[in-house]
Amino acid sequence: MTTTTATKQYTLGVLHGDGIGPEIVPASVLIADAAIAAAGGSPVDWVRLPVGFEAIAELGEATPTSTLAALADTDGWLLGPHDSAAYPEPFRSELNPSGTIRKHFDLYANIRPAKAYEGRNAVVPGTDLVIMRENTEGFYADRSTYRGTGEFMPTPDIAIAMGIITRQACERIAREAFELAGRRRRKVTIVHKANVLKMTTGLFRDVCREVATDYPDIQVDDFHIDAITVHLVRRAHEFDVLVTENMFGDILSDLAGELAGSLGLAPSLNTSQERAMAQAAHGSAPDIAGQDRANPIAMILSTAMLLDWLGGRHEDPTMNAAARLIEQGVTATVTAGTCTTDMGGTVGCREFAEAVTSTITQR
Ligand SMILES: NC(=O)C1=CN([C@@H]2O[C@H](COP(=O)(O)OP(=O)(O)OC[C@H]3O[C@@H](n4cnc5c(N)ncnc54)[C@H](O)[C@@H]3O)[C@@H](O)[C@H]2O)C=CC1
Ligand SMILES: CC(C)CC(=O)C(=O)O
User: How far is the CA of 259 from the centre of ligand 1 (A)?
Assistant: First the structure.
């Protein structure tokens, strides 16, 4: 008698975004389909939802209320980058799609790995680290739960930005960092600027240090944000997990991606305990949009992070296996010498994605 085990049927949102988004997001969906099939999972029910320029044209909102409502009914989603700096007013002055979605779903942890591929363009070969970025407050206070305390101009000649750091937000991001380090090389580096921003980033450092006492087997150190840039450029390969507030994490993760070989290979996952959103760490790259020159690795690996997260949340090893297949497919493709021009290769986005897909399907 043949028995078949039904695997969970997932519904995942697909938001292309702007610029290179419509190139890298569909490529990631195709690769995810191939990997899930190869791992024996049920086909995903993908739900296309508008955001960015597309949504402004169709619905008059950069992040439509209908998109937010539909996302709430999914198991997770892929968000492409948005070119919000180029939106017409009033959309440019509003909170951008990433900020709106992160805030709406309280996606407080932005997990941003940077991993170099052997022999491929890395500024610091051997880099294999993760920036754990607090995603809801700090100096991007427009996203915090404390509404109306972001930036403001009391007169046309004075602009003021407020930073907010709360014990609760520091504690939950610190725990994410220490838990992750426990599954990696057991080292956490706290990044702050407590010599100048004494109360805000001082609180961040101190709460992370307090949380560290619950993880005695994990090595901890801390650096000022300016100093850590120097250490990363010289010796990124020595770091494991770096935990920091929102804006420092945003900046440091671009640096770390480029040190690993290219900003185009830097993935990220935005999570809470209940939800997860795959999103490349980079922006919409308007300078190369529509030219088939984008490196899709960041979006592909972000998608793998989402599948891995789903596997953990639903105790579904097929999704973890699919995530591993995607990672292996990307590594095999890159180490075989196939990569986009930002990594010193010659292929376009489409050809790279096809190469990864055939590596997965032909194994
Ligand atoms: N999460 C998001 O959606 C983000 C959106 N943005 C938005 O993106 C737009 C452009 O911002 P920029 O400051 O120029 O940053 P960017 O990250 O879009 O581009 C910086 C540089 O990296 C290159 N690059 C980025 N991703 C690449 C990829 N996958 N493959 C190859 N090269 C890649 C670009 O060509 C450019 O030279 C702005 O409207 C900005 O607000 C910026 C950062 C994050
Ligand atoms: C969404 C961007 C405009 C800002 C950014 O880089 C980010 O918050 O990830």
Answer: 16
Q: Whose CA is nearest to atom 9 of ligand 2?
A: 250
User: What's the CATH number where 286 sits?
Assistant: 3.40.718.10
Say yes or no: 135 and 102 in one domain.
no
Integer Cα distance of 36 and 92 in angstroms: 38
Beta bridge partners of 271: 109, 276
Domain shared by 223 and 289, yes or no = no
Query: Domain ends where: 204, 234, 260?
Result: 260
pLDDT band, residue 120 (cuts 50/70/90): confident
Q: How many residues are there in the chain?
A: 363
- Do 38 and 160 belong together in one domain? no
Residues 37 and 126 in one domain: no
Q: Which domain holds residue 92?
A: 1-106+273-363
Q: Has this prediction a pTM greater than 0.90?
A: yes
Active-site residue list: 140, 193, 226, 250, 254
Q: Report angle CA 52, 54, 113 to the nearest 5 degrees.
A: 40
pLDDT value at 142 more than 80: no
Distance 272 CA to ligand 2 centre (A): 18
- Ligand 1 pocket, residue 112 CB under 6 Å: no
Task: Classify residue 337: in a domain, yes or no.
Answer: yes
Q: What is the per-residue pLDDT across 296-312, written as a single tens digit (0 to 9) for each?
A: 999 999 999 999 999 99
Element (H, E) at 328: helix 317-335
Of the ligands numbered here, which is closest to the C-alpha atom of 257?
Answer: 1
- Looking at residue 1, its pLDDT comes to 38
Domains in the chain, number: 2
Segment holding 47, helix H or strand E: strand 45-48
ipTM tops 0.90: yes
**Using an 8 Å Cβ cutoff, are 189 and 222 in contact?**
yes
Mutate to test the pocket of ligand 2, among 250, 253, 279 (most ligand atoms within 8 A of CB): 250
Q: Is residue 251 part of a domain?
A: yes
Q: What is the pLDDT of residue 218?
A: 98
Confirm whether 344 is domain-assigned: yes
